[in-house]
Amino acid sequence: xHEWARRVTRDWPPFEVEERGGWRFGFAEGITKxxxxxxxxxxxxxxxxVTAYYTGRGVRPCVQVWPGEEEVDRRLAGHGYAVVEPTxxxxxxxxxxxxxxxxxxxxxxxxxxxxxxxxxxxLGGVDAAYAAAGGGRGAxxxxxxxxxxxxxxxxxxxxxxxVATGIxxxxxxxxxxxxxxxxxxxxxxxxxxALRLYERAGFTRVSGYHNRVLG
Length: 215
Known about the structure:
This is GNAT family N-acetyltransferase. Keywords: Transferase. One of its GO terms (molecular function) is acyltransferase activity, transferring groups other than amino-acyl groups. By secondary structure, the chain is of the alpha+beta class. It folds into two domains: 3-88, no CATH class; 95-180, Gcn5-related N-acetyltransferase (GNAT) (Aminopeptidase, 3-Layer(aba) Sandwich). Helices cover 27% and strands 34% of the residues. The chain is built from six helices and eleven strands. The protein has helices at 3-11, 47-56, 70-78, 119-123, 163-177, 192-200, and strands at residues 16-20, 23-27, 38-40, 62-65, 81-93, 105-107, 128-133, 136-143, 146-154, 182-188, 204-214. It is globular.
């Protein structure tokens, strides 16, 4: 399994995991593709195993394809799996305490901004912190000296006001104070506003993947 695939799935974990037939199957009742996809364990794995597993669980079959898995990618295409949401992995160091406005409420428990969101079921399985401010929210998952930023969202009416910038900075500062010295995040490659936000915050590309989805 690709090293970044291993890290991403550890920080955004499925509810159930099964390894067989050269695949690692993740299932989270359909909550996000990232938690409901197969990861490659063996480059020669049979694609029909993926199709059978996910159709049997009532979820559209999906595979996360990383660099070095080109042969699997070709076989998936031959079975009718289409490319969906090419995604970048961005990272930065947190050697120095990041400057932060302190305008976000950051807590280890989700507040009102997270009420009713299925995402909290996934984040409840990891060491997560939740931030919210002015129509925006974001989360951070701590793992030793590394932190993964995820679930960033800003309400349409609050965009363009620096809300996401403040939330991201506050999450990075909170994480640094908790011992994190490296940060990463995943962002859909064609999300230009998000990419600008993260690049301004010092993140650069370190890897990437795309989903192959059946149908």
